[in-house]
Amino acid sequence: MMTASRRLALLDWARQSGAWIFEDDYDSEYRYAGRPIPALQGFDRSQCVIFSGSFSKVLLPTLRLGYLVVPLDLVDTFAAARFMTDRHSSVLDQAVMCDFLTDGHFGRHIRRMRELHAVRVEALVRLCHFIGFSKESASDHF
């Protein structure tokens, strides 16, 4: 993970050079140690970050819905590209997901799943300690 100063420097570099930064929001929902790491896109004031994510691992893989947050001046371009390349996502699924997000259900789901997974991770760690696995010896067995 880049330090905050390096992340801001990267944004500054992208702004100065006219470059895009593609940020993949992989696994941010399930961070167990420390505070969640804020997305670089949230600090972007120059509209140079393209942010992507998927609902596959946090909701349902068969839903097959992902998302991009793109700078305003690229919305039409990305919408046209999506129209030309992918017509597989159900409009009904997208509408339901929109309501699910807007009504706050997604945030509550993530909080519940984060708590559940944290309990499971802790149980696994305790079990590993109980049976004598250290981090080093566990990698020899798994």
What secondary-structure arrangement, pairings included, does this model have?
Blueprint: H1 4-17, E1 21-24, E2 49-54, E3 66-69, H2 75-85, H3 91-102, H4 105-130, H5 135-141
Parallel strand pairs: 1-2
Antiparallel strand pairs: 2-3
What features would you highlight for this structure?
142 residues, mainly alpha, Aspartate Aminotransferase, domain 2, 2 domains, 3-stranded mixed β-sheet, 3 strands, 10% strand
Quick summary of this structure?
The chain is mainly α and 142 residues long.
The strand count comes to: 3
Strand proportion, as a percent range, falls in: 5-15%
User: What is the fold named in CATH at topology level of the largest domain?
Assistant: Aspartate Aminotransferase, domain 2
CATH architecture of the largest domain: 3-Layer(aba) Sandwich
Q: What is the general shape?
A: flat
> How do the strands line up in the largest sheet?
1-2-3
Radius of gyration equals 19 Å
> What is the typical, i.e. mean, pLDDT?
85
Helical segment count: 5
What's the domain count? 2
Q: What percent of residues adopt helix (DSSP H or I)?
A: 40-55%
Question: What is the level 1 CATH name of the largest domain?
Answer: Alpha Beta
CA(first)-CA(last) distance: 26 Å
Low-confidence stretches: none
The biggest beta sheet is recorded as: 3 strands, mixed
Structural class, judged by helices and strands? Answer: mainly alpha
